[in-house]
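User: Good morning. I'm curious how asparagine would be positioned relative to this chain. Could you predict the structure with it bound?
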Amino acid sequence: MVSFILPTTDVQAAEKPNYTITTDASYPPFDFQDQNNRYVGIDQDILKEIAKREKFTYTLKPMSFNSAAQLVANGQADGIIAGMAITDERKQVYDISTPYYKTGVAWIVKKDSTITSLAALKGQTVALKTGTAAADYGKSLQKKYGFKVKYFNDSNVMYNDVVAGNSVATFEDMPVIQYAIKNGVKLKVMNAKQLGNAGWYGFAVKKGENKALLTAFNQGLKSIQKDGTYDKIVKSYLGKSQEHFTGKTSDNNSVLGLLKTNRKAFIDGLIETIKLTVLAIILASIWGIFLGILGISETKWLRGVSTTVIYIFRGLPLMVLAFFIYIGLPTVIGTKVPAFLAGIITLVLNEGAYTAAFVRGGFEAVEKGQMEAARSLGLPYGKAMRKVIVPQGLRIMVPSFINQFIITLKDTSILSAIGLLELTQTGTLIVARNSQGFRVWAIIAVMYLIVITLLTWLSNWVEKKVRN
Ligand code: ASN
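Assistant: Good morning! Here's the predicted structure, ligand included:
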């Protein structure tokens, strides 16, 4: 008998699965950005190699460690690789890979500090990084030694707080702080021989989910450890060639040098900031005008809706709104919200509420008599609004619009918190790499001022057109 069943193997040549994997935006030597904006580091290189061998692809989402871990715990991302210590607490929430790198918690003070024991921290401030195992360890000593704590989202900013003398000590994983000190950060480790909570790093997925990804990671890890690739990767960061990755020797740290080496990063960050600003300005204006008009409607409940929406979104801090939409909402609605979209929604809701408030006020400022006059001339409400009230009202509002546009541009910087690689986040990452805080932030500040100046010019030009 002839069989009509075709061989299926070729047809099934399955598509590679694509995973969303979060990481710490700056955690050298494990996760950081090189000068070409590419994510490198021990974690990143092993992940890349494992994905190649195990035939999966992934979209990398760099952000603060805390958010990166949350996204996986909430099931919005598939896995996290971020120099993440395997702890008993985390085992309750995640399924974690075979351990791949040894770690332990160090306590650290400024290089020239006179502090010699934990007891000397009494009454002083200690810097910790939100959501990390090192912070938990620090916290566990707080009562005994009586220090105050202060939290940061980014390791490098946390180190700088100690270097600047705002905090007297910090807790961080040994391999990470060792690398930072080797590369010029002026700190010293106090307990090199007796690290706290010694343990290992692992790659994690949400408990009970993404079994295939975890298995693939473990298999790939085994394979790169067996053939020496793993050692080669680690050596490339910790061996002699490390300057190459930190840019210490190759970077020219004059302003011009910084601009040159980081040109692509600065431009990409600027473009992202402009994209966010322009889109948000347009959409928030439309939404704000709509809400504002509802606010002067003849119908009471429509006015009520407008007032309530303005009240809520003007009242919420932008960052809370961003976290709510990006980290909170997806667990309820069951789909992921991309960071850019979450950022735009945040801006539109917040800036739109402010816009609505001044739009409503502007229309109200147009004399009530004007509406009555228009109506008595026989114009219906809609037409009277369009022909008489709106044009006059808009003219009154122009300065408020310009003001709001500038605020919108500045507010985009807050979205760095959800990992958007806009100008501010770009600055954070560059400083994390080269510790040139003063110059890099000055460059970023000037870039914002230039854009704000251009935006103001453009707005003034439009204002003139509208007024004539
Ligand atoms: N090492 C940290 C932890 O295990 C993670 C990090 O800061 N990237 O909690």
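The radius of gyration is 27 Å. Residues 263-294 form the longest helix (32 residues).
Let me know if you'd like a different ligand tried.
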